[in-house]
Design brief:
With about 250 residues, this protein is α/β, with parallel strands linked by helices. It has eleven helices and nine strands.
Length: about 250
Amino acid sequence: MSAVRVERRGVVGCLTLTRAEVQNVMDQQMAEQLFAGLQQLESDNQVRVVHLTGEGDDFCAGVDLDAMSRLGTESGDAQRQDAEAVGRVYLAIRALMKPVVCSIRGRALGPGAGLVLACDVSLAHQDAEFGFPEVRMGFVPAITLPILRRTLGEKRSADLVLSGRVIDAEEAGAIGLVSRVLPAPSFEADVNAMLAGLSGSSATSLALTKWLLYKLDALSFDDGIAAGIVTDVEARATEDFRAALRRRSGNSGT
């Protein structure tokens, strides 16, 4: 049974978690299908933006504990493959040269919260909840920690992962865990407006902007400015930018 539905709606590629009967908890199959879906949408030239969401009441309520129990007697190689499947998804989202927008209803816990952090833009319903409860069951949010720490810094990350507490959307927005918190009455309309806005921008400018944004993580300030200069020059040479200049010039002459 498929755990992820992949489809294209116009220029928006959609990835939907479909294990609503178990609150879309993450297992290896779901992770592998998410990775395959991201690859599929990356290669689809008609897709300009990707939307990740979940069916049912919860976005992704954590790790699949039943699957983890079944893995308990497996070899170290099997354990590693299971962990690597989730890590590949986080890396693939960041590497995708198209914006990935996540919309979150209900709970996003553990690897679900990791998906929220990995996406470029995360839009939370006002009633959504977030947390990293792994320590409460003798586990570690190990794969999510690198991206959490980059996003929130040491103190806020420590507060969340050491306590395992669950926070509401208002606090998640205040500390920067999500991009925006959207009111319930207009949630779907606001998400669609974001997707439409991104879809209307140049695909090459979006790709270059996303690439530089995350490339800066590995660079010093001086090297970051140097990378910015190279990217600036590259952007000037794109047909999208030149076409925009021609349109501006034409409008100025009327």
